[in-house]
Each structure stands twice: as C-alpha cells, then as structure tokens.
DNA sequence: CCCGAATCCCCGTGATGCCA
DNA sequence: TGGCATCACGGGGATTCGGG
C-alpha cells in the first residue's frame, strides 16, 4: 500500500498499536513518576503522561527518510529520521522517565501522548514512510505546503554540519506566552484573500485570525509591527501587504504593498 | 514621534554519543 | 538495548538604537 503525499510515494509501515494488558486494554504508562530527580526538576509541557508503548516491525531498521503519521487517513505529522526503527521503537514508542522533564525529549512525549489520545478516541493511527537521503528537503517541502496539525511551528534545530545548504531545515515555531500559540501563517492566508488596498484589523480580530494570543511586544512596541528586521514581518509581507498605521493594543491597518 | 534595522536571549527540536 | 546528557542550530520574542 502506498500513499501520495506532496508528490512523494509513501510506503505503508504499519498501524500503530499500543501494548495492551491481558484483557486487551491499552497499558497507560506514567514514566514521569519513576524519575529519581522528579523533586528537583520540573516536567516540561508534554511530560505529564499518560503515555503508551508501541513498536514497529524490525525490518525498518536503518531506513533513512521521511515518515508520516495519519489519523483516519488524515496526515497529522511529518518528520524525518536517520533510522525509522530507532526513531519509533526507542523514541516515540518508549518514553523514558528523563524525557518527561525539562531537558528531555519533549517531542517524543507530545507525539506519544497524542497517539494514545487519538487511539482512545477510537481513531486508527497509520505510519507511512518515504525512503530518501533528501529527507530534510522533502520534509520541509511537505510541511510548508500541507501544515500537518501536529508539526510544531518551530524550527528543527539540529546540527546542519552534514547537510547541504539547500536542505537546511526551517520550520516555524511553537513558542508563546501560553499554550494558545499564534499561527501567523493563518494571517498570511487571511491577507491573501483580501481585496482592496487597505484593511484595518483590531487586536481581537488578529488574535482570532491567528488562533492565539499576540505576544506582549505586539501590544507594547510599535517596532514589532515593523515591515522589516523581523522574520515574522514576512507573514504579512509574503501576502503582499505592509503594516501602515498602528494603534498599539487597539488596531493595525494593513496596506497593500506598493500603494 | 514614527519607523526600520539590528541585536540579544530564550528555547524547542532531535541527532549524537556515552554509559550501565 | 535503554536511558540520559549534551550539543548545534535557528526562529521568535523583546528590546534598543538611529535616521528621518
């Protein structure tokens, strides 16, 4: 079974099936409780289980490329790996106590927890894989075009020393004042659909559009709305708009670039 | 005062390598 | 093999500075 994602033929790996007990009930694990230093280190945002345990078949050992997680045939996550078996059987599929705490691998916890939740909701989780040495470029391309729900908006900040420049990863970010993270790409989409040469948006409207809170700087500093000097300015510049008038904390007037 | 540009810092991500 | 510490990297947030 294969699946076309972003123009690439992904191969079916397996359904992700968490380990169950003798009655067939999913075994929910709380590795965070087992960590020796739990009184001196804080849990990270994804570290508060429950988690589950799962494995993929051994034949995927050493397979380099891009993987896709699907829920009921909807693609929700794209990632790349040097070794698919290690990535799943030692990473996502088996959460260690240390990884639940600050400094641990929060991504593993996030993906594992999401998978467990979806399966408990009766969903079917499928794993697909596209074998390639150009995994960074392929991953980047698919994420930028399809915006999988579970992919953080943040950059994958791993070593690039072994990578050609053309495949350097750039993801957007997940960080923010709360769990209510703004998704600025939604602003780009919104502006792209506007007609006219000028458009006024209140802060409330902006926060509805980006489905999250604007940062404090957006309220306090006019510079945040500058049309240059910040990477986030690209979200409106890429849509062909510039920031015109700003009334801090109240509204922002966007004007069509070139007007 | 407005605006753009520059800069610093924080932190998420996931690969790597070491150790038991 | 599993658990863990460490690291490089770069985007976003926050702030400052200088020119007009």
From TrEMBL:
InterPro entries xrefs: DUF7662, EndoII-like_GIY-YIG, Host_DNA_Degrad_Endo
Transmembrane segments: none
Protein origin, superkingdom: Bacteria
Domain DUF7662, residue spans: 184-257
Disordered as annotated region, ranges: 153-180
Record's protein name: DUF7662 domain-containing protein
Lineage, top ranks: Bacteria, Bacillati, Bacillota, Clostridia, Eubacteriales
